[in-house]
Amino acid sequence: MGLYEKYLLPPILSAAMGAKPITYQRKKVVPRAEGRVLEIGFGAGHNLPFYDPAKVSHLWALEPSNDMRARAGERVRNSPLTIEFLDLPGEQIPLQDEDADTVLITYTMCTIPDVMKALGEMRRVLKPQGRMIFCEHGEAPDANIKRWQERLTPVWKKIGGGCHLARPIPKLIGDAGFRVLDMETMYLPSTPHFAGFNYWGSAAKV
Question: Considering the entire predicted model, what is its pTM?
Answer without folding.
Answer: 0.95
